[in-house]
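Here is one chain, start to finish.
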Amino acid sequence: MDFSLLGFSGMAGMMNVHPAFVHFPIALLPTSLLFYALGLLLGVRSLLAAGRACLYLAASSSLLAVGTGWAAQDVPHNETIHRILLTHRTIGLSILALSLGLAAWSFAVVDQRPRGAWAFLAVLGFSNLLVMLNADLGARMVFLHGAAVRPAQELIAPKGAHGPSGDGDQPHKHGAPEPAKIQSHPEIREP
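Its structure:
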């Protein structure tokens, strides 16, 4: 392990901090759904309480994800990224509204079960579908279209680094397939 790599220098070099916060609701909303579903099916109050706790954490972390996402909108981008970004933003705001609404709904409980428990579970399930769709949109912006990614070709594969260099070097294998060739986007400028 290389201890010199520790210390959050990656965060300091990022164009925005949205990726550091967006993964909390992505993890917590499905966890809430799992606990609520098991708690309702099995009639276990502690699972329902765990689902409620995860829902509160998901709702509060959705606030952070939307806030940091709102600030991240000003990264340089092209028309394709712009179209994806607008849809990503709309779905993100919908997830925030649904998670806050579900958190408020969860206060109306009888023996840890939310009133209208199966309707509650259906809305929570729909919220999870939106989370998965929005995660896909975010991944498309970053990994397929290069949103908020500094031009990487020279950073990832300079002459003599891992991979073919044209001098007869053999690619360095770590068990993963070779990455696709990175194409720079003239619309995305380095900060």
